Amino acid sequence: MTSTDTKARDVAPVKPSSRDPIAQWLDVFTSLLSLPAGEAERIRDELEDHLRTRVDDLLILGMTEPEAVQKAVTELGETAQLAKNFKAVRTHSRRRIAMHTALFAAAGLALTVSVAGFLPRASTTPVTSAPLIADAQPETVKHNGSLNEDLPEGTLGDLFQILADSGDARLFVHWGVLENNIGLAEETEVPAIPSKGLQHSKVKQLLNSVLNLQGADQIDARFDDGLLEIATREYFDRIETITMDHDVSVIVPSDHVLRTTNEGLSLVASIQSIVEPDCWEENGGMSSITINGSLLSVRAPERIQKEVIDFIARLEAAQRKQEADRQAREKKELEDERHSFQLMLRKSYESKNGLLYEIGNLQHELEESYVESWKCEYGLKDLEQDYRNEIDPEAKAAKLDVLAQAGAKLDSLRSRQDLLRDQIKAKRSSVTLLENNMNSMEWAAAGQEDSGR
Amino acid sequence: MGGKEMVPTLTQDQTEMIVLSVLSEGPSYGYAISKQIAARSEDTFRVGASQLYPLLTKLEKQGLVSTDWEEIKSAGADPDAPGRKRKWYRLSPKGERRLESRIAAHQRFTAIMNSFIAGPSGAAS
Quick check: A70 pLDDT over 60? Predict the structure, then answer.
């Protein structure tokens, strides 16, 4: 029964300025959606309307535009979940079926038990920048063991031990942290998890799902030097919090002072709304961002730092792509314009040649006319003389007629000569105009050549 | 007795009922719906964008609402330039039936709860 009428879908999409922070945020948001282009575009349109209407409201309340934009984008802290939530709606029914079969069926089970994400103890190298992502990657060493058998129903202590054994790791569990923070003890019963043959790629996620743990209260683990260490996410976040300087000069011109520009504020707001919103001080978390020239000084756990690095890298990539697209567009416009100049020049040359040819014809006709009129004048003199010498009245009258006809012919020739001269003059003016235009075009084309180099 | 006042949290079903209820009064769009919910609940209920828009998408997919688009132009904008697009939602007949069943369920729930709390003090009377 759903009908999607379209009143104005044929309008071209609005292309906001590349400096527009809302458009920048929407670019990033849309890239996170990973939905078909048309669907993502409609979501983007709807969210853009929400953001811009919100900014309008905040402006009416007396905020400055940068403040209003920052607040509107910051409010989307919860909207950072939006991408996931939209995808969740799209795949809801499919996932529900998958969950039903996954939880209790045998093979292909979604409850993949793993120890993935068991990162090694974080290095505390304190300074990095976006280009150093590649350097950061090798630190993320995953534990690649797999389970040879289903995890039976048992205690949490047993389960951790099985996981450690399956990866030939020694086990250290911060039971005090688990018990005090999330009420889990070694004896806590965990239901059976059919996991035989599955890779250790999602154990944290699945275990947390089974135990209904989220956010800072999740069970988290690190694998380093043969030791599997287990505690809460909050615990690891606390001990792994470091300060890193992220160079964002590619995203924001270095001659700008980030703190006082829209770009700087919206960049911080975008990071805080997209990279784990709950972790930032503004939203009750422990992480913070300080602006320092073209550096963002981020104090956060290393896992957040990696996300920030990734986010900045994506923005940089988007910025570079935008710049490359702009240059390609300008180059094409230049080439089109050059081509257009050349076309116009060629047409001008053709027009000029045509005019010169016509002028030549007219001049030729004029010269012939001059010859004829001279002959006519000489003829007239003879006729006048003949007429004056005639004494017979009848013959004299006849010669007068001949004389009049010759006079009329001479007048006609002279009129035609006036007309030809006017035409030649007009066509020469046209040639002069064309030549001036062609000179201008050649100058402009030469200028383009210089700027194109 | 003092103490902290509890802020009620909406369940998904309640949020759906509220959104359908707002739309039963006429077509609306996302931002206006969220403002109306906040205003009518005196800011007690806030349905954020991360909850509202996926819910509206779900309602649309389920045929509970129909949608159409409007082109919006800012005051003073170039009349020939394309404006931004606003998605309007309208309750469908199926949505009306869903709203009625949600309201009935809610009223049954409220009546049952009242039967528990209407003690000697007559608090729920």
Answer: yes
- pLDDT average, residue stretch A76-85: 64
Q: Which of B84, B89, B90 to mutate to test the interface with A (most CBs of A within 10 A)?
A: B84
With residue A289 as reference, give the H or E element that holds it: strand A288-292
Q: Which residues does chain A have within 8 Å of residue B72's beta carbon, measured at their own beta carbons?
A: 49
| A270 shares a domain with A236 | no
B48 CB neighbours in chain A (<8 A) are 75, 78-79
Alpha carbon distances (Å) from A323 to A242, A273, A316, A327, A412: 33, 25, 10, 6, 71
B32 CA: distance to closest CA in chain A (Å): 9
How many domains, chain A?
A: 3
Contact A204, A220 (CB under 8 A): yes
Of B57, B63, B85, the CB nearest to A89: B57
Alpha-carbon distance of A308 to A129, in angstroms, equals 10
More confident residue, B9 or A160: A160
- Whether the complex's predicted ipTM surpasses the cut of 0.90: no
* A159 in a structural domain: yes
What domain range includes position A202?
Answer: 110-244
Structural domain range at position B55: 12-71+84-109
What strand order describes the sheet that includes A4-6?
A4-6, B65-72, B84-91, B28-29
Q: Going by DSSP bridges, is the β-strand pair A170-173/A227-232 parallel, antiparallel, or unpaired?
A: parallel
Q: Do B60 and A45 touch (CB under 8 A)?
A: no
Using the Cβ of B72 and the Cβ atoms of chain A, whether some distance falls under 8 Å is answered with yes
The answer to whether B125 touches B97, Cβ cutoff 8 Å, is no
State whether residue B29 sits within 8 Å of chain A by CB: yes
Closest-CA distance of chain A to residue B27, Å: 13
List of chain A residues whose C-beta atoms are within 8 Å of the C-beta of residue B71: 7-8, 11
Residue A162 token pair: 């099985």
One domain, residues A376 and A272? no
Do A408 and A309 lie in one domain? The reply is: no
**Whole-number Cα distances in Å, A200 to A178, A205, A308:** 21, 11, 26
3-state secondary structure of A287: strand
Query: Is B69 in Cβ contact with A9 (below 8 Å)?
Result: yes
Using a CB-CB cut-off of 8 Å, the residues of chain B touching A96 are none
| Domains of chain B: total | 1
pLDDT tens digits for range A299-326: 999 889 988 998 888 888 887 888 888 8
The answer as to whether B121 is a domain residue is no
Residue B76 lies in a domain: no
Nearest to B68 among A7, A48, A75 (CB): A7
Lowest mean per-residue pLDDT among A175-179, A200-204, A244-248, B30-34: A200-204
B44-70 pLDDT, tens digit per residue, is 888 888 889 889 998 998 889 999 999
In a domain, B16, yes or no: yes
Tokens 């909406």 correspond to what residue?
B10
Question: Both A235 and A288 in a single domain?
Answer: no
